[in-house]
């Protein structure tokens, strides 16, 4: 392929999309550069569709490379990059959610997009570069992609907005919104905020829409130069006879089958499905086709009842919440626990407190840091009444946990205010839609049950959408259940406090959501969130005043950094002795902050006293009961605190003349002394009292 390059702007940043480095055998490949952050994208589609599947097999892989940041893995044994980090998985999901709605609904060919980060500059986040690269590679390929898209990160504070801010600008913002746009509609939203007002977030959506034209035009310019003709997909033909048979069978039954509880609906639909299987049992191909047609009819009937009659499967009004119950302190030995139940969706969430040494170490391409608040989400197969092999956490579990974590992370007290590492785990016991928001609500209750002084309680809600084929009419659904999610067009999750939004995540099956729909949805989410918070606060109105008796106690001692060596000792001898004799954990920061952790209050106090004695800053006039450790010709050395001794000069031992010091003092003698001076080198001069 010939070298082609197009130049443009993303916010106030220069962006270059080129074929300088490409994967020649991929269907589409580009290199995208913003600042010195560079990402290579390749997109490829299988030559034939998969058989017997009812979904589009798209995979987006975001590959971090440590060399991009000039780093080598810190592991002594493994230097090669291993499994993707959680952040890499989340970035891949973000891009997947941005582009997935923009493929033909009947496409069953495998499509794989691989994004390899080749260089990072520490200023421009590679996720935005990767999203633009993915869109560009698909746009120039023959893959039937209905883009291109524009993806932005917008940060804001006090109605001041920055498009694609640097890392430093992100840290100083009140919120950051990542938005993907196509044809003046939004396909994906990801938001982290510090109780931002709805009006601020809506303005950020509008700004993203207004800024989208430039980056989309840039990709269209590239397509004009090197774009390939798109493959046309053929819509599978429907067998009219089979469709007629399915309709005749379901005509009177379907309308009743889609209303009731989840269990009732499932049983009724399974009964109809069994009848279809029986009718076409001798022809597997016809049976599968009939079942697919039946599935389509179910979705159409649900959508029709909502759009035309405002009638939801479980009988609720469009803006009505499911029944909510909650309970705290449900487990006897954990540090904090809660159950939050909304309809059939139920989350058991448990909080564990640990020392600062328990913080997660992050050694990634773009950061070397630690993480002291984390939320892990588990979705076992029994939660949906299924059997399935248990595996490690998948992308969905990581994504849902990250959303719940994001919802609360800005409300957790700082390390200075509450020096614990906090791990929250949500076990989804039952699922019927919006489990991540149930996990968010349960997290708040569990943290409060643990006695963690969060700044404000957080609740989460999901708003769904059903739109007509021409999208001119639509209905928004508050608190969507599973069947509404499967049959609907949008999942708009919003978490926040009574004062504002802390997190948003939006996915859609449509080719984008209009600004008007999002503006209305965010207001419905606000109303529902406040209603849920009222219910939660009746269960536990504020964080408990005391930690669980099973939680570790932390004591904080601030010492002179120059005295850290006195606590550690030669080769760690002293600190290890303290740990061995008291059973505590000790963490020392370079600034002289000493954190002592123990489940035993007495052991904790003993260790604190020990450290304080080792690092005591002596002042003239202080009195101690000491012990003679050495006798010299000119005086006696007296230990006043463990490891701390001073000199009592022979003239200070007695008022009269002493001819032989050893006749009046010997090693092991107890002696009350007063500090007379601390010299310029920190040495103690003492005088015997009495």
Find the structural class using helix and strand composition.
Answer: alpha+beta
How many domains? The number is 5
User: How many helices in DSSP terms?
Assistant: 15
Taking all residues together, what is the mean pLDDT? 91
**CATH topology label of the largest domain:** Ribosomal Protein S5, domain 2
Major beta sheet, strand line-up? 8-7-9-10-21-20-18-19
Largest sheet: 8 strands, antiparallel
**Assembly type:** single chain
**CATH architecture classification name of the largest domain:** 2-Layer Sandwich
- The CATH homologous superfamily of the largest domain corresponds to GHMP Kinase, N-terminal domain
């Amino acid at each position: 392929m010939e070298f082609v390059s197009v130049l443009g702007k993303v916010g106030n940043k220069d962006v270059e999309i080129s074929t300088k480095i490409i994967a020649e055998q991929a269907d589409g490949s580009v290199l995208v550069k913003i600042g010195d952050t560079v990402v290579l994208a390749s997109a490829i589609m299988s030559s034939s569709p998969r058989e017997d599947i009812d979904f589009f097999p798209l995979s987006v892989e975001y590959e971090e490379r440590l060399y991009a940041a000039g780093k080598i893995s810190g592991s002594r044994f493994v230097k090669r990059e291993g499994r993707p980090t959680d952040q890499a998985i989340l970035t891949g999901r973000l891009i997947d959610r941005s582009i997935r709605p923009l493929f033909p609904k009947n496409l069953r060919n495998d499509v794989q997009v691989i994004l390899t980060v080749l260089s990072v500059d520490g200023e421009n986040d590679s996720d935005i570069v990767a999203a633009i690269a993915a869109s560009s590679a698909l746009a120039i390929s023959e893959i039937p992609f209905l883009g291109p898209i524009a993806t932005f990160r917008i940060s804001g504070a006090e109605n001041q907005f920055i498009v694609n801010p640097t890392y430093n600008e992100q840290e100083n913002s009140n919120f950051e919104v990542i938005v993907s746009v196509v044809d003046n509609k939004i396909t994906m939203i990801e938001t982290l905020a510090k109780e931002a007002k709805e009006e601020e977030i809506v303005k950020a959506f509008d700004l993203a829409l207004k800024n989208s034209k430039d980056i989309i035009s840039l990709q269209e310019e590239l397509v004009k130069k090197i774009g390939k003709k798109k493959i046309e997909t053929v819509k599978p033909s429907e067998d009219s006879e089979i469709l007629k048979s399915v309709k005749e069978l379901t005509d009177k039954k379907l309308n009743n089958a889609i209303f009731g509880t989840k269990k009732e609906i499932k049983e009724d639909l399974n009964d109809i499905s069994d009848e279809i299987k029986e009718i076409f049992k001798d022809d597997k191909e016809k049976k599968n086709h009939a079942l697919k047609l039946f599935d389509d009819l179910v979705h159409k009937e649900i959508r029709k009842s909502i759009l035309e009659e405002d009638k939801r499967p479980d009988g609720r009004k469009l803006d009505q919440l499911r029944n909510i119950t909650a309970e705290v302190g449900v487990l006897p030995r954990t540090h904090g626990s809660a159950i939050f139940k909304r309809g059939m969706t139920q989350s058991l969430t448990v909080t564990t407190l640990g020392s600062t040494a328990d913080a997660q170490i992050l050694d990634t391409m773009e950061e070397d840091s630690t993480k002291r608040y984390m939320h892990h989400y588990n979705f076992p197969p029994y939660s949906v009444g299924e059997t399935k092999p248990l595996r490690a956490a998948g992308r969905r579990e990581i994504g849902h946990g990250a959303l719940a974590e994001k919802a609360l992370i800005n409300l957790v007290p700082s390390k200075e205010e509450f020096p614990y590492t906090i791990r929250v785990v949500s076990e989804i016991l039952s699922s019927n839609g919006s489990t991540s928001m149930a996990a968010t609500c349960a997290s708040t209750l569990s943290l409060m049950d643990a006695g963690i002084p969060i700044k404000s309680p957080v609740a989460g809600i999901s708003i769904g959408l059903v739109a007509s084929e021409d999208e001119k009419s639509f209905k928004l659904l508050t608190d969507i259940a599973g069947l509404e999610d499967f049959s609907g067009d949008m999942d708009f999750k919003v978490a926040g406090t009574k004062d504002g939004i802390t997190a948003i995540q939006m996915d859609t099956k449509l080719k984008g959501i209009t600004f008007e729909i999002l503006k209305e949805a965010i207001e419905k989410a606000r109303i529902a969130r406040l209603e849920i918070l009222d219910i939660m606060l009746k269960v536990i109105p504020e964080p408990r005043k005391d930690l669980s008796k099973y939680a570790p106690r932390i004591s904080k001692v601030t010492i002179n950094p120059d005295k850290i060596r006195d606590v550690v000792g030669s080769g760690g001898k002293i600190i290890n002795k303290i740990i061995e004799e008291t059973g505590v954990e000790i963490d020392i920061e370079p600034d002289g902050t000493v954190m002592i952790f123990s489940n035993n209050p007495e052991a904790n106090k003993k260790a604190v006293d020990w450290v304080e004695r080792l690092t005591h800053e002596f002042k003239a006039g202080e009195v101690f009961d000491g012990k003679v450790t050495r006798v010299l010709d000119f005086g006696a050395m007296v230990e006043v605190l463990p490891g701390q001794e001073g000199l009592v000069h022979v003239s200070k031992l007695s008022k009269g003349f002493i001819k032989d010091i050893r006749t009046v003092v010997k090693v092991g003698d107890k002696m009350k002394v007063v500090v007379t001076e601390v010299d310029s080198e920190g040495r103690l001069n003492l005088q015997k009292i009495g």
